Amino acid sequence: MDPALAHLGEFGLIGLIRERMRHRSPGTVLGIGDDAAVLRPEADAEVIATTDMLLEGVHFQRHWGCPRELGRKTLAVNLSDIAAMGGRPQHALLGLGVPPSGVPLAEIEALLAGLEEEAAAYGVALVGGDTCASRSGLVLSVTLLGVVAAGRAILRSGAHPEETVWVTGRLGGSAAGLLALESGLRPDSPWPAGLPRPTWIGPAEEAALQAGLRAHLLPVPRLAIGQALVGCATAMIDVSDGIASDLGHLCTESRVGARIQAGRVPIHPAAAVVGRWLGRDPLDLALRGGEDYELLFTSRADPRPRLLAVAPELEVTALGAVVAEPLGARLETADGREHAMAGGFDHFSAAP
């Protein structure tokens, strides 16, 4: 174990976390330091709660050397869930499992700094959690509480036939960024000396790859978009496992089907570059890559006028339509054929 971390000890680490996490959000009566936090709920609001884990070797690799980005992402993936409900985040609890060897205190401090940056950016207070020793790698788990006006949460179950399916941003960037990381690329670093560089990769392609790395390491939760869609979106989900999977979840909960056109799927520039470089289908990365953390939703009306005020530069794309037949999600290709959309990331599926 890192001597500095061993000297600090578990309660010293808790004290370090308490000292760093100074941001407070409304409703925090008592934060870190007691057996439990004390929170005051808002009047005429409902509490929404979500939790996500990030595991070393599954969601990230420490040898990528990005602990600050990891701290931000640890909270961002939970913020995205709150965004998908149209809510406003308030309070977080952190579960931190640290392996007994190989994690220096400086790395944990960088991770906590990133977590606090993300919390401060979105008005979240860290009010508690737990620390322990992990036997198999670094473990990060955040539970996030937020609020939404009573009866106004946007659910997955509200889609109706003849509504339009929409998505924010571009898809496949995170999956492309992950492939680039696994190939040896790093954010804001030159092309690795030992990695063959295709002759066709120029400044524009490198910029696209860097954007993909950022998309994977530093996802942007669409909180303002989610809140602006309250009263407009009829059903919504964040794109964490890929729209091939996530649109299916929305259809299942709403008991409807959906048809989207392949030519309308907005593909991230990094997916196009990685597709050519590593022989992957950019459309497949966009449909099944996951971790884009964009918002996928249905609406009767065009949402773009109301979203223009909160995110004027963000693309919002109409993908297709909700249909009455409960056929799940289907993809219509340029030749007019329809294909069932399946796949996406599944922690418990058999390895291919």
Describe this entry's structure for a reader:
With 352 residues, the protein is an alpha+beta fold. The chain has 2 domains: 3-149, 60s Ribosomal Protein L30, Chain: A; 164-340, Alpha-Beta Complex (Phosphoribosyl-aminoimidazole Synthetase, Chain A, domain 2). It is 34% helix and 24% strand. The chain is built from 10 helices and 13 strands. It has helices at residues 3-20, 67-84, 105-121, 173-183, 203-217, 223-228, 243-254, 269-278, 282-288, 304-308, and strands at 28-30, 38-39, 45-55, 88-98, 125-133, 139-149, 164-168, 233-238, 257-261, 295-299, 316-323, 328-332, 338-340. The protein has a 7-stranded mixed beta sheet with strand order 8-10-7-11-9-12-13. Strand 1 and strand 2 form a beta hairpin. The longest helix is centred in the first third of the chain and has 18 residues, at 3-20. The mean pLDDT is 91.
The number of strands is 13
Average pLDDT, all residues: 91
CATH superfamily of the largest domain: PurM-like C-terminal domain
Amino- and carboxy-terminal Cα gap? 36 Å
SS-based structural class? alpha+beta
Low-pLDDT runs: none
| Count of separate DSSP helical elements | 10
Largest sheet: 7 strands, mixed
What percentage of residues falls in helices of 4 or more residues?
25-40%
CATH topology of the largest domain: Phosphoribosyl-aminoimidazole Synthetase, Chain A, domain 2
* Secondary-structure element pattern, one letter each: HEEEHEHEEEHHHEHEHHEHEEE
Task: Kindly give the count of domains.
Answer: 2
Q: What is the strand arrangement across the widest sheet?
A: 8-10-7-11-9-12-13
CATH architectural category of the largest domain: Alpha-Beta Complex
